[in-house]
Amino acid sequence: MNDAQNVSASQALQRLVDESFASRIWGRDATLWPEPSPGGEPANKTLGWLDLPMRLSTPTAQFADLHSQLVRDGFTDVVVLGMGGSSMTPLILSSIFGKSETTSNTTPTIRLHALDTINPTTISEITSRLNLSKTLFFVSSKSGATVEPLTLEAHFRAAMANALDYSVNRKNFVALTDPGTLLAERARAGEFGTWAATPDDVGGRFSALSAFGMMPAAATGINIRGLAESAVSMAQQCQADTKENPGLTLGAFLASNALEGRDKVTLITSGEYSMFGMWVDQLLAESTGKNGKGLIPITDEPVLVPDDFALDRQFVVFKSGVEEARINQTIFTLRNSDHPVFVIEPPTSDKREIAGEFFRWQFATTAASSLMDIYPFDQPDVEAAKVRTRELLSDTSVTIDDISLKMAVDHIKSESSPRYVAITAFLPESPEATAAFSELRKAISKQTGMATTFGYGPRYLHSTGQLYKGGPQNAIVLGFVSAKYNHLTVPGKSYTFGQLTEAQAGADFTVMASGGQTVLPIKIESNLIEQLNAAVRALNNY
Fold first, then answer.
1. Which of 58, 93, 462, 528 shows a CA-CA span of 20 to 30 A to 454?
2. What is the pLDDT of residues 233-250, one digit of tens each?
3. 356 and 230 Cβ atoms separated by less than 8 Å
4. Domains in the chain and their CATH numbers?
5. What mean pLDDT do residues 204-209 have?
6. Integer distance in angstroms from the first to the last C-alpha of the chain?
7. Residues in contact with 501: Cβ distance below 8 Å, sequence separation at least 6, in sequence order
8. pLDDT of 503 above 90
9. Are 114 and 176 within 8 A, CB to CB?
């Protein structure tokens, strides 16, 4: 990083200190940010996440004994039915910890799954793999009305009844939602074995340390008290109006680089923390992607060399002690190429330090938003896609106008940075497909210098979707859809999971295009991997 970049970040940090950002946010000062969009909650009603570490340090018996109780009851699997902030944290914690250090080799392992898709092929596959009578389903929705978890709940209740030929045991279902929602009312009426009220002053992407993230994690045996210690320590460090405040330093770095045109926040982690990027995606994209501005998270990117990076990049490197030699070489190479680099190195090698990172990034995002004059606690452009989805479901004859993947590649060849390519895939998720899309991302960046993002639909709708619709209108969106979905029935509805998937894809493509993004829908009839490989060859031969 050159001297000018150092000065810029230092000046931004000094401004946060001089303006007492830390003291004011802990004092619930809403004047730190502009006014919310019409209908958005005021800031002083959205800051409950600041207190979550302290609340977590004294977890209820419901948390502490959950794993043991599930083992006694014979459960083998936990499935989180949720989107965005309702599913990402338990999925990430499960990937980091694997089999919990709190369970012995003789204690039965409870497997965690996060189902944040309505792709009918994926739903059918996971249904066939589960022993439904021994599976606990968390129906997670802050609003209590999110369409994906509710349709999935209906599916699994029906599948359980059909498979076992008996009335569904309510003990197999747990509701996680805000007080007063329709889902909460259903829980009170006895439709669930239990339910947990989540704080109504905490937004979904700020809910990692709430019941949304912690209760499914506790179910698998992860030590919640250990996570709480890390979170409390970070929260305490983020209270000081000093240049040593870890949340302020990261926030100043993110904002100062973005304001100078480096708005592509590229996260580099070791392998065991790779899924942390999914959580960062949502936090940055939904919080800052509005009014034509925003931090664009670039996560899980294939390995590139500095010459492949345009000057619209900034880098945050997460050092965990794993793969340290590779990470150190990456830091050296990037800095030697005058790219701005921020290094996060937890104080210990304890994996539970990840809880502190959840808090650091939340705090930093609100600080960066203040510097960029962005209100971070709403998502004003998401509702438009939901409205359009409902319209398309009422008229299932509407089709998506598509182009060939070859035409899309030709279009990309004609573009260059500072644009970026957003790849969205309303297709079944698989390691093979993800690897092939990664190769496509690598070829695009090497040949054009453009950064790339990637997300499966509908997951990205609850993550980077706000950014694509409300942020900088300089994306080229490659929207992959299937030519024919398995039309698995949604119990109690007039539409199928396939029709819902098509409607969500078509609605989002329409709204993004109307906002100014270049949207290139691509229908895949068969041989996805072959088509992606051909596109990579075409780009590499360019």
1. 93
2. 999 999 999 999 999 999
3. yes
4. 3-31+240-371 (3.40.50.10490), 50-228 (3.40.50.10490), 382-540 (3.40.50.10490)
5. 94
6. 31
7. 118, 119, 120, 426, 457, 458, 482, 485
8. yes
9. no
